[in-house]
Structures are given as C-alpha cells and as structure tokens.
Specification:
This protein has about 475 residues and is of the alpha/beta class. About 30% of the residues lie in helices and about 25% in strands. The structure holds flavin-adenine dinucleotide (FAD) and 1,4-dihydronicotinamide adenine dinucleotide (NAI). Keywords: Disulfide bond, FAD, Flavoprotein, NAD, Nucleotide-binding, Oxidoreductase, Redox-active center.
Length: about 475
C-alpha cells in the first residue's frame, strides 16, 4: 500500500452492530467512518425491526386491553375505535426520533457518517456509491468492520410484494387490518406480528413446520405454555405443517398446506400472508470476492474468535456472521471487535445473551433449555413458580405464566432461566447477571426482592430449586 490509510476504522452498515462499533471506535480515539446505504442510521432494528414492532405491540396491546380487559377493572369506556393511521404515525415518530438520535451521537463522538453503498475493492479500500448520486468515493481504512446485517429469507414460490405477501417489513406497515392473515413460521417474528394483527381484529393462523412454536432456542415447556396462552387470545396454530405453495390473486392469497410428514392437503385463505421463516445474512454487493473473504453454507461471513475474516484487519459482526440474530448481541460484538483493534482483547459471553419475545405476556430466557441440559447427560434440578401465586401479578390481574430455573444438581449453579410473564423481558436482566457471575439458585433465593413485585416470583422459583418456595 503506497497511500496512507485515511481512517483507522471504517464500519460498513449502520445497524446496532455497526453504529455501536463506530461510536466505540471514535471513543477509543480512532479516526472512524460509518457507511450506511438506507438513508437513516439504526439498521434493521431501528427502522424496520425491534423498534417499530415494539411500538405496534405496545399500542395494539393497549387497544386490546381497552376493548376486552378494562371493564372488569372498573373502567367503563364509550365507543372504542382503532385509528390505524395514527398508530402507524406514533410508530414512525419513535423510529425517526431514535434514528436521528444516533446521528446526533455520531456528531458528538466525531464519527464520519457516509451515506451510500460500500463495496470492498481492496484490503484497505472501499468504494462508496453515494445515496444521493454523484461520483463514486474512495475511502481508505486501516481496519474494516463488516456489519451489513441480514434480510428475510424468501419462501420459494411466493413472491414478496410487501402488500399481500409480506415480510416483517410489510407487516409493520399494513394500511388496513386484514380480515384473515396466514403467518408462515411460528418463530419470534411470526408470533410478535400475529399478536399485533390479531389484537387489532385479524383472524390469524400460524403455520409451523416443527412440532413447537417459538423458533430455535425456546424451552419446550415454555413453548407449550405460550401456545396455550396465544390460542386463548384467538390465534390458530397448525403445527407439523408445511406450506406447499401459494396462489396469489388480486384480492386474496390461498396458501396450500399439508402435514409435514405427508398427508391431507388443505388451502388456507388470507388477505395477507406473512413469510417469517427466518433471516439470512446480507452481503450482496459488498465485494467480499475482491479480497477472498469466505462465507459458510448459510451465507455467514466466516470469522475467528476475534471477528477476523481471512483478511485479519477486516472483521465481521452481528447478523452478517455467526450466532443469534439479535440487536444486543450485535452491539456486544461491535464493542468487542473495536476493543480487539484498539487494545488487543475483547469479551462477549455467548452463554449469557438473553432472548425476549414481546408478546403478551412476554417470554424471556437466558442460558440452556431443559432439553439442552438433558442432552449433556448432566443431572439437574428444576425450580418453577407460577405468576398466579405472585401477589403483584394477581393485583395487576395479569398473572399468566411462570419462572423456571434449571440448575446443576451437584453445584446448584444456574444453567438456564426461562420466564413467561408480564415484563419478563425486564426481569430476565437479573437472570443474565446471575449467569454472568456464575450464581447459584441459592444466591438468588437468599437475596431480598421488594414486595409486592413480580420479581418475587423470580426469587421463589430460585428457592424451589434448592429448597421450597413459600407461596406455592
Ligand atoms: P442490521 O441492523 O441489519 O444493519 C445493517 C445495516 O447495514 C443496514 O441498515 C443496511 O442498510 C446496511 N448495509 C448493508 N449492506 C451495506 C453496504 N454494502 N453499504 C452500506 N450499508 C450497508 N432483535 C432484538 O434484539 N430485539 C428485538 O426486539 C428484535 N425485533 C426484531 C423485529 C423484526 C421485525 C426484525 C426483522 C428483527 C428484529 N430483531 C430484534 C433483530 C435485529 O433487528 C437484528 O439482530 C439487528 O438489527 C442486527 O444488527 P446488525 O447491525 O448486525 O444489522
Ligand atoms: P425464527 O428462526 O425465529 O423462526 C422461524 C420459524 O419458521 C421456525 O420456527 C421454523 O421452524 C419455521 N419455518 C421455517 N421454514 C418453514 C416452512 N417452510 N414452513 C413453516 N415453518 C417454517 O425466524 P423469524 O421469526 O423469521 O425471525 C428471524 C430472526 O429475527 C430471529 O433469528 C430473531 O432472532 C430475530 N428477531 C428477534 C426478535 C426479538 O428478539 N424479539 C423479534 C423478531 C425477530
């Protein structure tokens, strides 16, 4: 290389992995740029993922609660009407506020924000096709971090138009409440989106290839409990069922399904079909072939434990590479990748990354499932506690679900924690900390938890592991 590199770090992609890496790098005193092609920072998560879906989940829950739940709390309301346009506007306001917030953080930390599509053209060179047109710009970098994220996996034979046949991106932007909706895939996206539209009035049928909902990683007890709760809320499930084909017409879609192991075929009618069968890494047009960087059979950028590709100063993080496709996982990797560059060491504990599904009640978990522990052959204890025996959940008239601990029988060390319940997504933070610190169930059980709070159910589930809970 004859020319001196212009930036110490150039990040390609401005999602949770990329923007966090860029801010961290600038904080470490490295001259940093971040290239993003969508015209807004925050990636999938802020623009079409975590944030807009949570806005719709929260507001559809309030609507549904007013319709079906407030009367028995002593609140009589008059005519309740859905204003979908306003609900979408509220969602957009949250999204715009947050994406602009990241732009502000870039300015504050001195990150150069380059708007355009980046292609790696050499080991230290990226060409950027500017979003607003004009000449291709060359950016030179000592280190490159690939954080280009993922996209929805398409379903063969069903062309996505984001109106009638949608991915999550179309599903968070429907202009009308569909009368009937078919969801292909009973994983996290499927269940969150099914919740939104079912609460707003759709008849929703979820078709899942496997025998359980929740996607990979959900404990079998929890998946069963969740299915029972969601069925009570009005969702229909077809498990062990595969979609064979779809016929799209002007006004509707027929989804042809049959038993996964062969069997009776059936056609399901819908106004909207959501394809939610997983996501795949996105590296189209990135130019990896120009520098010999390899992908695995699932399209993930191959990296070592320090996120280095075959070209050691080009690293990859987040959805574009191995591991759970979660925003907070991408963020941890963003920080660790930068620390490897600036300090030579970094840290992500992959055994302590929480998962949260934002249905009502929420599902949240960390560590191993009971099935995973069983497969190791290790002897274990289970301690569980239902929210129906928790005073706060009872008082709030919101007491479905439970907390389940799995511990090592010999040492009492916590191996996994699984929660279905109100605010499970907040409660799991205590479980993550417990696993991070190598806690035993007795450590949690002997820790005072405020009364009356939902967190007492967490303590009592821990007590159920090494002793007995008081209230069950
Ligand atoms: P991304 O967020 O995908 O960002 C990558 C960015 O790179 C994109 O903005 C893209 O435009 C840009 N890019 C790609 N190629 C180029 C290029 N060549 N040049 C310039 N820019 C480029 N996770 C959670 O943890 N919690 C949730 O509640 C949650 N909800 C979700 C809901 C939905 C509907 C979806 C779809 C996902 C959800 N996720 C959630 C997953 C989460 O969005 C992803 O795990 C996260 O966004 C991954 O971050 P990333 O930085 O790796 O990639
Ligand atoms: P997923 O992997 O969670 O679930 C996909 C489901 O579809 C699985 O249950 C699978 O068995 C099923 N499936 C696959 N092919 C099928 C077929 N042909 N017919 C019927 N069913 C089929 O993927 P999903 O829900 O699309 O989400 C993608 C990613 O986004 C997840 O990895 C998740 O981590 C992330 N995400 C996270 C959220 C959160 O943290 N709250 C919210 C939404 C998405």
């Amino acid at each position: 290389a004859s020319e001196a590199p212009e930036h110490d770090v150039v990040v390609i992609g401005g999602g949770p992995g990329g923007y966090v890496a860029a801010i961290k790098a600038a904080q470490e005193g490295l001259k940093t740029a971040c290239i993003e092609k969508r015209g807004a920072l925050g990636g999938t998560c802020l623009n079409v993922g975590c944030i807009p879906s949570k806005s719709l989940l929260n507001n559809s829950h309030i609507y549904h609660q007013i319709l079906h739940d407030v009367k028995n709390r002593g609140i009589d309301v008059g005519d309740v009407k859905l204003n979908l346009q306003q609900m979408m506007k509220a969602k957009e306001t949250s999204v715009t506020g947050l994406t602009k917030g990241i732009e502000f953080l870039f300015k504050k930390n001195g990150v150069d924000y380059i708007k355009g599509t980046g292609t790696i053209t050499g080991e230290n060179e990226i060409k950027v096709n500017p979003l607003e047109g004009g000449e291709v710009q060359t950016v030179r970098a000592k280190n490159i971090i690939i954080a280009t994220g993922s996209e929805a996996t398409p379903f063969p034979g069903l062309t996505i138009d984001e109106k009638r046949v949608v991915t999550s991106t179309g599903a968070i932007a429907l202009e009308q409440v569909p009368k009937k909706m078919v969801v292909i895939g009973g994983g996290i996206i499927g269940l969150e989106m099914a919740s939104v539209w079912s609460r707003l009035g759709s008849e929703v049928t979820i078709v899942e290839y496997l025998g359980a909902i929740g996607g990979p990683g959900m404990d079998a007890d929890m998946a069963k409990t969740m299915q029972r709760i969601l069925t009570k809320q009005g969702m229909k499930f077809k498990l062990n069922t595969k979609v064979v084909s779809g016929d799209v017409s002007e006004s509707s879609v027929a989804v042809n399904v049959e038993a996964a192991k062969g069997g009776k075929a059936e056609a399901l009618d819908a106004d909207v079909v959501l394809v939610a069968i997983g996501r795949r890494p996105y590296t189209t047009g990135l130019g990896l072939e120009n520098v010999g960087i390899e992908l695995d059979e699932r399209g993930r950028v191959i990296v070592d434990s320090e996120y280095r590709t075959k070209v050691p100063h080009i690293r990859a993080i987040g959805d574009a590479t191995f591991g759970a496709m979660l925003a907070h996982k991408a963020e941890e990797e963003g920080i660790a990748a930068v620390e490897y560059i600036s300090k030579g060491y970094g840290h992500v504990n992959y055994g302590a990354i929480p998962s949260v599904m934002y249905t009502h009640p929420e599902a949240a978990w960390v560590g191993q499932t009971e099935q995973e522990v069983k497969a190791t052959g290790k002897e274990y204890n289970i301690g569980s506690f239902p929210f129906s025996a928790n005073s706060r959940a009872k008082t709030n008239l919101d007491s479905e679900g439970m907390v389940k601990f799995i511990t090592d029988k010999e040492t009492d060390r916590i191996l996994g924690i699984h929660i279905i319940g109100p605010n499970a997504g907040e409660m799991i933070a205590e479980g993550v900390l417990a696993i991070e610190y190598g806690a035993s169930s007795e450590d949690i059980g002997r820790t005072s938890h405020a009364h009356p709070t939902l967190s007492e159910a967490f303590k009592e589930a821990a007590m159920a592991c090494y002793s007995k809970p008081i209230h069950a």
